[in-house]
């Protein structure tokens, strides 16, 4: 067997139509519904569920017991910690409004899409509301409830999640300095937008 082949635990369920990249590992009792795609060099922890229509990039870690629903896109180098739950329905009901019986589980016009941008981290036990974007290299604190978009490099915590600071590409909280926010760990410096809309403009180099 090629060392580049994906590793799928015997107890994992991988449905037809699922694409798995080289060197990706799916551990015990993972369930991936098709069609869905998982890139190369990823880890999907035990008992995680990935719905159809989900796209996962390269070098992604999804820890145990995560729930990734239809409509979620996870870009490269993202960390999804244990027991993270994504949601996608704007007006969830179990019953059909058109008559008796259960509502369809198929996507509708009220199924919203969520994107987790490159390098972001979502902490353990976080709940991600429908239709949000989590920006590149952002960090969502453990147990946070995300109900709105998270800017790039933002650190958000709480229920609902609120801005608590900014984080470096390396994950370290940034400290304010005379030349703008900087990272004491790796030396990267950043710029913040002027005015009431505080957002990170990007890496301004290293000290």
List keywords for this structure.
207 residues; mainly beta; UDP N-Acetylglucosamine Acyltransferase, domain 1; 2 domains; 6-stranded parallel β-sheet
Describe the model.
The structure is a single chain. The chain has 207 residues and is mostly beta strands. It folds into 2 domains: 1-91 and 111-167, UDP N-Acetylglucosamine Acyltransferase, domain 1, CATH 2.160.10.10; 174-207, no CATH class. The chain is built from no helices and 24 strands. The protein has strands at residues 7-8, 13-14, 18-20, 25-26, 31-32, 36-38, 43-44, 49-50, 55-56, 61-62, 67-68, 72-74, 79-80, 85-86, 114-116, 121-122, 127-128, 133-134, 139-140, 145-146, 154-157, 162-166, 188-192, 200-206. A hairpin with a 7-residue loop joins β23 and β24 (200-206). The N and C termini lie far apart (46 Å). The mean pLDDT is 92.
């Amino acid at each position: 067997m090629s060392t580049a082949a994906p590793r799928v635990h015997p107890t994992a369920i991988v449905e037809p139509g699922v694409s798995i990249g080289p060197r990706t590992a799916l551990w015990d009792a993972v369930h991936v519904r098709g069609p869905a795609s998982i890139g190369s060099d990823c880890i999907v922890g035990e008992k995680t569920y990935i719905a159809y229509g989900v796209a996962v990039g390269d070098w992604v870690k999804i820890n145990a017991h995560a729930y990734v629903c239809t409509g979620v896109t996870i870009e490269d180098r993202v960390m999804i910690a244990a027991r993270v739950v994504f949601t996608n329905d704007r007006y969830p009901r179990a019953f059909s409004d058109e008559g008796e019986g259960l509502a369809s589980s198929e996507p509708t016009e009220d199924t919203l899409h969520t994107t987790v941008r490159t390098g972001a981290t979502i902490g353990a036990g976080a709940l991600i509301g429908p239709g949000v974007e989590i920006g590149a290299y952002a960090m969502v604190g453990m147990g946070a409830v995300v109900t709105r978009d998270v800017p790039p490099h933002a650190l958000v915590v709480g229920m609902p999640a609120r801005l608590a600071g900014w984080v470096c590409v390396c994950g370290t909280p940034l400290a304010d300095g005379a030349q703008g926010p900087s990272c004491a760990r790796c030396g990267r410096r950043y710029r913040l937008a002027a005015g009431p809309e505080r957002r990170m403009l990007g890496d301004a180099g290293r000290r």
